Each structure stands twice: as C-alpha cells, then as structure tokens.
Amino acid sequence: MEELAPQFEARTGNHLVVTYDTSAVLKSQIEAGKPFDVVVLTPPLMTALVQQGRVAGRSATMLARTGIGLAVKKGAPRPDISSPEALKHTLTSAGSVAYSASGESGRMFSSALQKLGITDAVTAKAKAVANGRAGDVVARGDADLAVQSMPELMSVSGVDVVGPFPADLQSYAVLAGGISTAATDKARAEAFLTFFEQPFATAVIRQKGMEPS
Fold first, then answer.
1. Which of 15, 24, 51, 56 is nearest to 38 (CA)?
2. Complete domains list, the chain, with CATH
3. Would strands 211-212 and 68-73 be described as parallel, antiparallel, or unpaired?
4. With contact defined as beta carbons under 8 Å apart, do 147 and 87 qualify?
5. In terms of DSSP bridges, do strands 145-149 and 97-100 run parallel, antiparallel, or are they unpaired?
6. Of 181, 73, 63, which is closest to residue 134 (Cα–Cα)?
7. DSSP letter assigned to residue 126
8. Fewer Cβ close by (within 10 Å): the C or N end of the chain?
C-alpha cells in the first residue's frame, strides 16, 4: 500500500488518508464508529462487517494473497526447500528457526509442520516472535532460519529470501477490499479497488511477494 497509494493519487488526482494496522484492530476501530470509505481486511473479518451492515456486500472483493516462505541470513548458503522432503530436512537440520507466533503466518507454519510430522522437533528449537519480523532475528544472527509471510521476509534487508514453501505445504493469507455502506464518494471508492487490477498495480503486488487476484 505504501507504494501503490502515491501512484493512485498521481494517476487519479485523489488524495488518500490511509490508516495502517492489523486486520483485527481495523475491524475494531470500524465497529467503534471510525469513519472510512474503503477497508482492506482478511475475508472472515470482512464478512463480519458485511453482516453488520458496515461494508457493502457486493463491493467485497479479493485483492491479493500471500503464502509463507523461508529466509536465511544475507550471504549464507541457501538450503533446498523445493519439495516437502527437502523442506523437512532443512527445518529439522537447522540449529534454530525463528517464526511469527501471531497472525496468519504463524498458523500457516504450524499447519505445514503438522503435515510434515515434525511439530515437536522444530518447536523444541524454534524462536517465537510475538510481535515483529522473524527475519530480524536471523539478520542479527540469533537464528538460522526465518519463516514468515513472503512480504514480511522481503522487507528485511539483512536476509536472503530462499523462496516460498512448496505448493503441497502452502497456505495463503488473503486480503479483501470492501466499501463502506456510508462511503462519502462510492465512485471514488470503487475506483480505488479497481486500481488494484491494473497491470502496474499487479506488478507491484508481485514485487512485494504477493499474488494479485
């Protein structure tokens, strides 16, 4: 959003006032009466706002999705994660693994470990990050591997992103956009959501480690 918002303003002449926070916090703010025109949330929370009559049901649309990946300290050898067996070997042979203990990426990592049957083995040497980026732990040299969503890993300058988990083990966090039932200018709100479908916007989304809708 940090990169796309200025492009939207430059191309349309519309000024955006953007509030950044987790999906849960944004939903709570809206339920408390915070005015908004467009909101970007995970689908379950979007559905809740639609049911509450705060978001127009027909406006809700998927914008992008992201999976989890693995990173190592910058310059370190890149392990093989090209298959479930390769990833299993990489995770079990590593000295320590940093991962996000909260949010979607933590749940997706837990699901992958269960599928591989190595939950106990990896958890015993894992470093859970309550808040923040798992990549920072690896960049400091406090863990060998970092597992988190691809955009979060790519935002850390001190690591090399090896890549996403294999498809058989991958889960996705989806971001959906919706328009407020009380939007002051629904046409502009619709234009903003449509903007995400433009080629230059989808290119930015891919560069950030996400998949456009």
1. 56
2. 4-65+173-212 (3.40.190.10), 68-169 (3.40.190.10)
3. unpaired
4. no
5. parallel
6. 73
7. E
8. N
Enter the tokens of residue 45: 């929370």
DSSP 8-state class, residue 180: B
The whole-angstrom separation of Cα 65 and Cα 156 is 20
Instruction: Give the chain's end-to-end CA distance (angstroms, integer).
Output: 15
Tokens of 63: 């914008």
- CA torsion sign for 44, 50, 52, 54 is positive
3-state secondary structure of 32: coil
Looking at residue 194, its amino acid is: T
Beta pairing partners, 126: 97
Alpha-carbon gap, residue 60 to 38, rounded angstroms: 10
Structure tokens at 180: 């407020």
pTM of the model: 0.77
Question: Are 134 and 103 spatial neighbours (Cβ–Cβ below 8 Å)?
Answer: no
Instruction: Dig out the tokens for 59 from the structure.
Output: 């406006």
CA distances (Å), origin 98, targets 69, 70, 137: 12, 10, 7
Residues written for the chain? 213
